[in-house]
Write a structure and sequence with these properties.
Largest sheet: 8 strands, antiparallel
Strand content: 25-35%
Oligomer: single chain
Number of strands: 29
Helix content: 10-25%
Shape: elongated
């Protein structure tokens, strides 16, 4: 038996703010409450609450600045189904079964419907519960997103974990990887929708890998709490998702230029010589990155006084020459006991090794190793907004060149446009042709950085001979000629959430930003 209530306002600290309409359906036997909240005509929050869980807990994914615009609705009942309609959606709630089905309001075509629906398995010894939901998988449906997963663009038929991992020397199909972005986009026959799973515990997505007719996702703790996002086009859906989770800051113009990096440039004389070589060859460069060797014993926010006796003077001199200094920081704390690094107290279990550390990476926070508290928040990309995101410690190979392009497209479809891979590859040494082609490709990525491990040799633009240098210089110069256009794209991205790279979302399959660029450079 279910009791139904329509709740136009919520209590003190809701995860959503603004003009909201909310419905609750409580099963009097299981004590599970299905809550459905309408944020606008195309954004619906669906949550399943056990009786002991407070309803309005904060969200790590939804931006504090997001205010729901609301929507005009029409609602009615038909044969045990409560129906809510907006200008975009027809939502059918099977109240007794606590299942929610989404349809296009104009065509009544099913978009996402429940198969087995919600499930929950309690773990009495921890007080937690595994939660999951099963949806019908459409025959012609394909899936994209989930951040930087290093695989083919289409996720159908695959299973993925959401648990941030610093995966050194990853390869195709490595999972999990650096960024936990629990958002995907479904595309099929001129229809699309997006789904954000708002849960910070270890979670998973199964796009028909276990059962080819079932889309399922869930977590090993926390709530079943997801946002269904619908719009007229895939770009509209990504924009709505980005506004929901928070639009980024507009990068400064120099950050959209070329970055030179290595593990590592030191001492300071090596940095001065590097910049002098760029200027001598007339190759544009806006930033030089310094990796761990600038630190004293690799401790964050310190300088090695022997290698950088006048760090402030060096930074000022480089800036005067038009080059910004970027410091790579991987803060870690070797502790046993209490850590207050994320606004939450995390208790480490006694079996953790002394060298364990809490790391803040590109888009998430995780604990290394996993012996730490199993429910440490797997905070998603929306909570920790970086200046730029990279694809991880890749390798100098043609396979990784392909994966780099896939990762950047996937990140754009996941709401992160300021992203790029380590051009040329971080590990190994590229062939001249591989380096040339990689730099040409990377000049179109949001974040254009050549980064490598120095133990394999140099990877600067001039290392591979005069012919390659000329081609790479031309690619970098081409980037700077397009900077006004790139900056305009990023401004639109920061203001509206519209992704900068949209060849995947536009369906063209062409490595171009917009059709107008193709015509002007054909």
């Amino acid at each position: 038996m279910c009791s139904v209530s329509n709740i136009p306002e919520r209590r003190k600290t809701p995860p959503l703010r603004g003009s909201l309409v909310k419905w609750e359906y409580t099963n009097t036997v299981s004590k599970i409450t299905l809550s459905m909240c309408l944020a606008d005509a195309g954004i619906v929050r669906v949550t399943y609450f056990p009786g002991a869980v407070p309803e309005d807990e904060p969200s790590y994914a939804v931006s504090p600045g997001y205010s729901a615009p609301g929507a005009e609705i029409r609602e009615y009942d038909e044969d045990g189904v409560h129906v809510v309609e907006t200008s975009l959606l027809r939502i059918r709630i099977r109240t007794e079964e606590q299942k929610v089905d989404f349809y296009d309001v104009a065509t009544d075509e099913p978009l996402l419907t429940d198969e087995g629906g919600f499930g929950r398995e309690s773990k009495d010894w921890t007080g937690d519960a595994r939660v999951w939901i099963r949806k019908n998988l459409q025959e012609t449906e394909h899936f994209f997103g989930l951040g930087d997963k290093p695989c083919a663009l289409n996720l159908r038929g695959k299973y993925f974990s959401m648990w941030g991992a610093d995966h050194y020397d990853f390869h195709e199909e490595s999972d999990p990887l650096y960024k936990s972005i629990p958002f995907f986009l479904s595309l099929r026959e001129r229809k699309a929708y997006g789904l954000l799973f708002d849960n910070t515990c270890r979670s998973y997505f199964d796009f028909g890998a276990t059962d080819e007719k079932v889309l399922s996702f869930g977590s090993f703790g926390g709530l079943m709490n997801y946002y269904f996002i619908y719009g007229r086009t895939p770009l509209d859906i990504i924009s709505a998702y980005t506004r929901l989770t928070g639009t980024p800051e507009l990068p400064p113009l120099w950050a959209l230029g070329y970055h030179q990096s290595k593990w590592s440039y030191y001492p300071d004389k090596a940095v001065y010589n590097l910049v002098e070589r760029f200027r001598g060859l007339g190759i544009p460069c806006d930033a030089v990155h310094l990796d761990h060797h600038y630190m004293e014993r690799k401790e964050g926010f310190t300088w090695d006084k022997q290698n950088f006796p006048d760090a402030e003077g060096m930074v000022r001199a480089l800036e005067k020459d038009g080059v910004k200094t970027v410091l790579i920081v991987n803060p870690g704390v070797n502790i046993m006991g209490l850590f207050m690094g994320t606004g939450h107290a995390v208790i480490f279990m006694p079996r953790i090794h002394r060298e364990s550390a809490v790391r803040k990476n590109d888009r998430f926070v995780h604990v290394v190793p996993e012996a730490a508290h199993a429910n440490f928040p797997n905070i998603p990309a929306e909570q920790i907004r970086p200046p730029a995101a990279y694809g991880g410690n890749n390798r100098s190979s043609w396979e990784h060149l392909k994966l780099a392009n896939f990762q950047c497209q996937r990140l754009a479809a996941s709401g992160i446009s300021f992203a790029g891979a380590d051009a040329g590859g971080f590990m190994g040494h590229p062939t001249p042709e591989l380096f040339c082609r990689w730099m040409q490709m990377a000049s179109f990525h949001g974040f254009f950085r050549n980064h490598s491990s120095g133990e394999f040799g140099g990877q600067e633009p001039w290392v591979f001979g005069q012919e390659v240098t000329s081609y790479v210089k031309a690619a970098i110069e081409g980037r700077y000629r397009l900077l006004p256009y790139i900056y305009t794209q990023f401004r639109r991205y920061a203001e509206t959430g519209m992704p900068r790279r949209n060849e995947l979302l536009a369906g063209g399959g062409v490595f171009l930003w917009r059709p107008s660029v193709r015509h002007s450079h054909s």
